[in-house]
Design goal:
Blueprint: H1 3-14, H2 22-29, H3 33-45, E1 50-53, E2 57-60, H4 73-89, H5 92-108, H6 115-119, H7 131-146, E3 148-155, E4 161-173, E5 178-184, E6 189-194, E7 198-207, H8 216-226
InterPro entries: CBASS_pafABC_assoc_protein, DeoR_HTH, HTH_11, WH-like_DNA-bd_sf, WH_DNA-bd_sf, WYL_dom
Keywords: DNA-binding, Transcription, Transcription regulation
Pfam families: HTH_11 (PF08279), WYL (PF13280)
């Protein structure tokens, strides 16, 4: 989580009117107490009326109001288009969340800018995406989040069927096609699977551990190395090659 996002979350937690200790905030935000103390000091230095002390707890002054969000016309257009794309191409759960997000955005932007939501003349049309595929996206997103093994049957582009046990790591949208990036236990390597070619899948009862070399960040690093770019965006030379995905 970015520090700016964390500062915003701290303010939201403290608006509840109850004393919250630095330890409680640290547990909610998954950071150290030292980090929370630094964040609180920064907020107080910026004029946010946070009351309290270490060992007792903190609370936001009851008469403090967070200023309303402000967006430029282009920012509103990008949010609207993004929500429309999610509604058209993502799973049912995220499609519903995108619609609710637009309602919230409409509620917080200035009155004079609300017409920009309806006037955004950019659209995302869904040419495919059956209800089965949408539900698959919801299930796959859940499996990625919970880090649970998946047992699935898959049909390749050549029509060959196979049974796989995978560690789902992330979902990628390529324009009309979604793929699941996963670590394949059978191939012992990263593989990409088209979601529309996954015929059956079942989430296992147990989750997979964090393991170096088999995580999403490892795949990203591997692709950067393969294409000659390091983690800082600088050209590098490498002899490593990534196996092709099927």
């Amino acid at each position: 989580m970015r520090r700016a996002d964390r500062l915003f979350e701290i303010v939201q937690f403290l608006r509840g009117g109850r004393l919250l200790t630095a330890q409680a905030l640290a547990e909610r935000l998954e950071v150290s107490k030292r980090t929370i103390y630094r964040d609180l000091a920064q907020l107080q230095g910026c004029g946010v009326p946070i009351e309290g002390e270490a060992g007792v707890g903190y609370v936001l002054a009851s008469d403090y109001h967070v200023p309303p969000l402000t967006f430029t016309a282009d920012e509103i257009a990008s949010l609207v288009l993004g929500a429309r794309m999610v509604r058209a191409w993502a799973g049912d759960d995220l499609a519903q969340a995108a619609q609710e997000a637009l309602i919230k955005i409409d509620a917080v932007i200035p009155e004079g800018m609300r017409s920009l939501i309806d006037d955004t003349q950019m659209f995302a049309m869904s040419f495919s995406g059956s209800s089965i595929e949408r539900s698959s996206l919801d299930a796959l997103r859940k499996a990625c989040k919970e880090r649970c093994f998946l047992d699935m049957t898959y049909v390749s582009l050549e029509g060959e069927g196979s049974t796989r046990r995978v560690r789902p790591l992330g979902l990628y949208f390529w324009g009309r096609v979604w793929t699941l990036l996963a670590w394949c236990e059978i191939r012992a390597d990263f593989r990409s699977f088209r979601v529309d070619r996954i015929k059956t899948m079942k989430q296992a009862d147990h989750c997979f551990p964090v393991e170096a070399g088999r995580e999403l960040k490892d795949y990203v690093a591997k692709m950067k190395a393969k294409h000659g770019i390091d983690a800082h965006g600088q050209p590098i030379k490498t002899d490593s090659q990534s196996s092709s995905c099927k």
